[in-house]
Design a protein that fits this description.
seven-stranded parallel β-sheet, 11 helices, Rossmann fold, disordered C terminus, single chain, alpha/beta, 342 residues, two-stranded parallel sheet
């Protein structure tokens, strides 16, 4: 068992959705000797940091330069949660993604492995490409065919870690469809819950894509949705458990788009109004109609907490965070996994 209280913790991407939720989870466990590493751009993701407790903040480029210039720097660090990356699935600058997602992760992981530092890093369910349903983290990586450059940049590092034997000590987390507080800065990469909430506020209803496969009715397309509080709790558990290799982090249960959005209307106390619109031709050939994580490895690692029911998670998000425009904060009455792990 890895003791998170021994040594400093680094959280890269610590101002982002999952990174800030990890810091919040650590704070709730009494841990605040944390170095947050990120790039604070022109968005307002800095607001995610305001309620959190941490020892220091460092720009991502400065952190990398210090490690390269002086490998003995940060000798007090014993744990790294590497969540920092460009997560845009529509980013077209392949050179940027290679440098930011692949090369940066290689250098940080090499530094961690050489010094026996426990490192958990963010891979992605997007690495599964066009596969549908029952997605296994024990599949042969060589068989995967990512569909966009973001996914490929993540897949490249998974392959590199395996070739170099690093997957025997590092833990790569394949996150599925994560939603929840602290995602305001993500633009088009925000969850459907956040986008739908905004559509309801401005227009009273939401729009979903029609189905083009007869076995799926409109709105019945499925995804594995997971509340960010659960995702952070699972990630911290994996760091403590010393689990190595790739691990799916999802609910293990598929839910439809309708199951996801209907609780939003109820939480807002407004009538349900859903319009189904045509899907762009460019998407129809590669649109996934059903995805679901196999979470056997996660459960085998000893994670036995129940996943927050989707209806409860959406209601918590809308009621406690979206309507009052709050970030994750220990002062906010916490539900779901935070109560189980407090």
């Amino acid at each position: 068992m890895h003791d998170l209280s021994r040594g400093r913790i680094v959280v890269t991407g610590g101002a982002g959705l999952i990174g800030s939720a990890i810091v919040w989870t650590l704070n709730r466990r009494g841990l605040d000797d944390i170095l947050i590493v990120d790039r604070l751009d022109t968005t307002e993701k800095w607001k995610n940091l305001v309620p959190l407790r941490f020892a220091d903040y460092l720009d991502a480029d400065d952190f990398e330069l210090q490690i390269l210039d002086d490998p003995s720097a940060f000798a007090d660090v014993r744990t790294i949660f590497h969540m920092g990356a460009c997560s845009s699935t529509t980013e077209a600058d392949a050179d940027y993604l290679i440098r930011n997602n692949y090369e940066y992760t290689k250098r940080l992981a090499g530094w961690a492995v050489d010094r026996g530092v426990r490192m958990v890093y963010a891979s992605s369910a997007a690495t599964y490409g066009g596969l549908e349903a029952d997605l296994s983290d024990e599949c042969d990586l060589a068989t995967l065919r990512p569909l966009n450059m973001y996914a490929y940049s993540k897949h490249l590092f998974d392959l590199y870690a395996r070739r170099n034997g690093w997957s025997e000590s590092l833990c790569g987390v394949k996150y599925f469809n994560i939603f929840g507080p602290n995602e305001q800065h993500k633009g088009d990469m925000r969850s459907i819950v956040h986008k739908a909430y905004g559509q309801i506020v401005t227009g009273g209803g939401i729009k979903l894509f029609k189905s083009y496969r007869p076995e799926f009715a409109d709105g019945e397309q499925e995804r594995d949705f997971l509340y960010v509080k659960d995702a952070a709790d699972m990630t911290v558990h994996l760091a403590q458990s010393e689990t190595a290799g790739l691990v799916n982090v999802g609910s293990g249960t598929p839910h439809t788009w309708l199951e996801l959005v209907r609780p939003i209307f109820r939480a807002m106390s407004v009538p349900e109004r859903i319009e189904f619109i045509d899907m762009p031709e460019s998407l129809r050939g590669k649109y996934q109609y059903s995805t679901c994580a196999r979470v056997d490895r996660l459960r085998a690692s000893g994670y036995d907490a129940p996943v927050t029911p989707l209806d409860d998670a959406v209601t918590d998000y809308v009621t406690d965070y979206l309507i009052p425009d709050r970030r994750l904060d220990e002062r906010v009455a916490a539900t779901t996994t935070s109560q189980r792990s407090a």
